[in-house]
Amino acid sequence: xxxxxxxxxxxxCKSFGDLQVLKSVDLQVKLGEKICIVGPSGSxxxxxxRCINLLEEPNSGQLDVAGTHMDFExxxxxxxxxxxxxxxxxxxxxxxxxxxxxxxxxxLQNVMEAPIQIKGVPxxxxxxxxxxxxxRVGLGNKSSSYPSQLSGGQQQRVAIARALAMDPKIMLxxxxxxxxxxxxxxxxxxxxxxxxxxxMTMLVVTHEMGFAVEVADRVIFMDHGAIxxxxxxxxxxxxxxxxxxxxxxxxxxxxxARLQTPVE
Length: 264
Fold this sequence. Notes:
The chain is of the alpha/beta class. Helices cover 36% and strands 24% of the residues.
């Protein structure tokens, strides 16, 4: 995890009308890093991820993602071309709270669709790769199942396989377990932990603090559109520097026993 950052945000701002959601955010992510982004609801966490893959366009600042540079000048009328945007997005996979699967397609078809349509991969090759990805997320025997025949955890694992099908350099996860029943959360986190072990660069917005303790190289704490803390998990969970982070953690400690144990 050395060298030029694969993600580099400089002074990124984003507003919706009069509401400023991101306030001059600086963030650097090295290849292979696993970063968990935590904070209260409305702190800008999801918007930060959506700016990284241009689902939301920053109002100002600079963005470098996997070698694609974009400069957002305040008040500029310049629009980036579809080719520029697609080049950036092909390096970034994203998994959302909702699974967003195509209900009329099987699990296999959901995973193979983007490589065929966007990259022009031959159908047979896409099917073979999709089957391998479903196997990778523990769903090799569900390739012919439709989303309605899968549990929420299984659908989210198909969504992860679908994101991986584009061979991304970076994976973004926007609260991927928040829509799941509690007993299904573990199967999704297990897949994410395996991705982390394989060296995938990951930015994860999550309320699963135990996952952050065990997997993250860094924890970023956001509040009111700003990054207040950026440090290793042991420092954040046991020695938070800001009063706001202390308040945030105080409400969580009683609900998450995994944070009571020492972090190596």
